[in-house]
Specification:
Distance between the termini: 18 Å
Helix content: 40-55%
Number of helices: 4
Order of helices and strands: HHEHHEE
Largest sheet: 3 strands, antiparallel
Strand content: 15-25%
Number of strands: 3
C-alpha cells in the first residue's frame, strides 16, 4: 500500500472516529486484535475480559451493524453457531488505525 493511501485512510478514519461511540471503538479494537468473529464470540471475548456486563450477543451486534454501515467492518462469511444450531455471520475489520 502506498504512503498516500495510508495517509488518506488515516485521515478518513480520524474524521469518522470523532463520531464513534465507546462500544463501537471497543468492537473495532477487539476485532482488529482477535480477527474474524461472530457477534456471540465477540460478546464472549469482551465479557471474559470484563469490558461488558453480560455475554449476550446483543451487547455487540447493534454496534457491528453500525460499523458495517460505516464501512469499517464487513461480513466475511458464515459459521455454525452450536448454541443456536444455525449459521450466523462472521465479521472482520475492513481497515482501521487505532
Amino acid at each position: 500500500m502506498s504512503n498516500i493511501t495510508k495517509t488518506t485512510r488515516k485521515e478518513s478514519f480520524n474524521k469518522v472516529n470523532k463520531t464513534l461511540g465507546e462500544r463501537q471503538l471497543m468492537v473495532l479494537e477487539f476485532l482488529k486484535e482477535d480477527g474474524e468473529q461472530t457477534a456471540r464470540e465477540l460478546a464472549m471475548n469482551l465479557w471474559n475480559r470484563g469490558h461488558i456486563p453480560t455475554p449476550e450477543r446483543n451487547m455487540v451486534h447493534p454496534r457491528l451493524n453500525e460499523l458495517v454501515k460505516l464501512g469499517l467492518v464487513k461480513v466475511t462469511g458464515k459459521k455454525l453457531d452450536s448454541d443456536m444450531g444455525r449459521f450466523v455471520a462472521t465479521y472482520e475489520v475492513v481497515w482501521v488505525v487505532l
